[in-house]
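seq:
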Amino acid sequence: MKKPHAVALAAAVLTHTALAERRHRQRMTLAAATMHQRGLADLDENPYREDVRSADGQIPFQDFEQVLHFDRLILLLMVRHRLGLLSRAALRASAAQVMTHERGRLCWERRRDISHEQAADGTDREFNTIMDAAFAAAEVDRALTDAGREPGAEA
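struct:
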């Protein structure tokens, strides 16, 4: 075999291997998200859910379903971003929308430390940074609203 053909063949094999690994990681991400969603659904359908939901005493039973909804939404944003189906700008807009809700902020506040600890790469860190920025902006807006000023208005 001639040297240029061998180099081209080696490049093709390396490219194929890299793409196969990427597809495998995407499938694993989707599988983990599916398991997480099933776990949340099981928790939601548990006949003893009041005991389970309020076990840590941090989320009132009445609020738990909404927090669970936002946990699912944040997971969906994370998976879509990881798979490249959500641009940075779209993620920023979606994160800002989630953080306009008190339960959305509560959900991120409870899960962000774990999310930071489990960040495996730059994509996870980018997701966490965008969510943290949206959380901080929403907290500033909430503080201004509580103080009687209009969010975004000059001081």
